[in-house]
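Q: I'm building a small set of examples for a reading group on sequence design. Run inverse folding on the following structure and report the sequence directly after it, with nothing in between.
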């Protein structure tokens, strides 16, 4: 069975900056991974796209990906993570906590180079896909 993976915003942004199509990169790993997305990742990525054609292409790709919901349970888990980590002196950005909550609920790993995610207990983090 394929491992469920939620690529973080920085995966898409770093591939674009490197002149690569992030969706083609993901497609080369579909045999071993099932890629998902969530609303926060879509918002973070799409807000920075300048070309309307690129925006439409990203929206089309996101629309066919498995979408992890950000319902009440995800928000409650993000709030719980924030409260718990804050008490330990670890203050993480709210978007990262919400993305982590979505991944935790789906038993998905987060594909990211953002070190914030490594501080979240129980979250599986991948820095690359090989």
């Amino acid at each position: 069975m394929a491992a469920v993976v939620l690529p973080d915003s920085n995966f898409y942004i770093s591939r674009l900056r490197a002149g690569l199509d992030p969706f083609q990169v993901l497609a080369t790993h579909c045999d071993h991974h099932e890629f998902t997305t969530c609303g926060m990742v879509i918002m973070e990525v799409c807000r920075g796209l300048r070309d309307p054609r690129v925006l439409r292409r990203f929206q089309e790709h996101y629309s066919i990906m498995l979408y992890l919901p950000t319902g009440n349970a995800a928000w409650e888990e993000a709030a719980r993570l924030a409260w718990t980590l804050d008490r330990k002196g670890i203050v993480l950005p709210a978007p990262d906590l919400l993305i982590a909550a979505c991944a935790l609920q789906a038993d998905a790993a987060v594909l990211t180079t953002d070190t914030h995610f490594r501080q979240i207990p129980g979250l599986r983090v991948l820095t690359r896909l090989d």
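The first strand starts at residue 3 and ends at 7.
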